[in-house]
Design brief:
heterodimer; A: 618 residues; alpha+beta; 6-stranded mixed sheet; 4-stranded mixed sheet; 25 helices; 39% helix; globular; B: 91 residues; 5-stranded mixed sheet; 2 helices
Amino acid sequence: MFGYHGRYLRVDLTRGNCEWMPLPENVLRRFIGGVGLATYLMHRECPPGVDPLAPEAPLIFCLSPLVGTPLTTSAKFAVVAKSPLTQRLNDALSSSHFAIAAKKAGLDALVITGACSQPSTLIIQDGEIALVSAADVWGLSPPETEARLTDQLGPRFQMAVIGPAGENLVRFATISHDNRHAGRGGLGAVMGSKKLKAVAVAGSQLVEVADPAGVVAAARDLSKRSFGPATAKYRELGTVANLLTFNRLAALPTRNFQQSTFAEADKLLSGGGVRGEGFRSKAGSSPLTTNDSPLTSLPVRRSCAACTIGCEHIYEGSAGEVRLEYESLFALGPLCGISDRDVVLRAALACDQWGMDTISTGASIAFAMECAEKGLINDIGLRFGEYAAMLQCVDLIGRREGLGNLLAEGTRHAASVIGGDAPDFAPHVKGLEIPGYEPRALQTMALGFAVGSRGADHNRSGAYEVDFSERADRLHGTPDSARLAVETEDRAALMDSLILCKFLRGVFTDLFTESAELLTYVTGWNVSAEELHASARRIVTAKKLFNIREGWTAAEDTLPKRFLSEGLPDSGSSNAVLPRERLEEMIQAYYAARGWDRQGYVPSDSIRDLSLAEVPTI
Amino acid sequence: MMGAETVTVEFLGIPRQRAGRTELAVAAGTIAEILSAVERACPAFTDLMRADGKLAPQYTLSLNGKRFLRDLDHELAPGERLLLLSADAGG
């Protein structure tokens, strides 16, 4: 077998033992790797109805056939579990040397069940495992933990770790590697519930590819194209550039989605905040705002291992250097009414150190701010724009103290406790907080959020691409735009399973055809674009079937009442409204395009046609 | 240039970096004519158009911040605003 080891390692932390499980070729070919293969493994390994924080709940790290090849952006890994935030399937991706080292350790996937009796580190080296005490790193931040373990184990080992938020079971805690996060859905809490502080991997087991010369030629070609204009935004400006664009299009979620423009957006990027500090990136990019903008970069950018794009821009604030992305910027800035860039940088850094998802953290605080302004909670001084209280609240969530203990449960649960009309404006879908795309101003994306298997999600549905095109009216979604949303989901499912970075997507002329060629070079299978289209549909449907198994109903495929009953106040979006009937019409079109019935369930003939019938528990 | 017969081109993201300015007033006309005026006014903006005369795929256009379009024959009325953006919105 080329491209795979053909096996996964199942580790039982309770018993402290492990066993190798075979991965047959017909499974690997149908589910590819990454999110796809991990979804298959969740069907196989996850007991129905399990509490995500119970010892029996599996936590899965999954690699892909492309890991270890010279193909740009291929050093990625998926982490999958049942989410403690949504109670549904949750898949998150992260990158870099951990993926390469884990594959060299001799496995295609790692399934962790059980729980340790004491804080522990799981060490895997060339297929051998050891559990050692993590008492000396318990309580440390992810970067501190990795540094300490590197000192102890040596530089060959790469670590995926949790921060204190994961230890404290914050339901949107992350799993971190090299300061990048498998960020959404609380996978860090799953790891924390197992008292597992870190997974350290090393090895020397290389996987052969079928056509080494073909892989090298394809890698050179892809790398060359990755330096081109399709990735210029990520390379030269970073994703923070989205802020001004979204603001101009009145699609920037502001003050807990009460508005879609932020009057101080320019100030947030250009300086002059409360503290008057500069907002400097380390990458040397040109200004985003005006010609005298201080949004300039320091001399270096950072990249994941095996990546030629280099999207990570590092900014300098009063607390030190911080990697900042648009999602962190929007959530900790405009969503909370914060216009001081240094406060945003400090909050983002705090999230990194606690090991918390910045989107859910910012959204939870913004939600609490609105609750406080409406008198629904007695608070710690939270009001939109109150930066000191916002920074304090980040730490309260990480420590699970006071109001932070409630917000650490996520906005869905917090709203149910607070009561009143709080559930109407708690910004989540299926319990996952909404990212930085205003649904009423981007109505195909609104559909993508509503039907997403892991909740409100901009990485599993790229439906915003439809909204930002001439193919749809972003302010008035239709059944046609719903069908286009399906295509973006399928592309994401393929890229998340290969795994390749989505920032590479613009480089491909035909993603499915070119991916088939790459997979053929690596595996030796005669893969076609049609086969990969089917695989993508299979993976999306397999995720849906897992959720159905866990109690999903069509009532979950919706948006909070605010989005379906309040128009946007901003004229820049033509005061857009998204009536419930319109969303439901789009959802029906989506179900039909997927071959599902009107209630969103998957008919048996679709299960058969997608070769899903033999998957365990389906 | 600024007056009743002009339209305003707004630059966001990479286009702003390439153009070196936030906006530009040009004579009203078709989008093709407007983009030609942008190229003349911003000589460093070298990758705006493809060799076949179409808008380069890494860019996209929005009319008045509402509707997206790529039809270069579309004619803008005086006073309208054409947004020139990076095509990749995600992140």
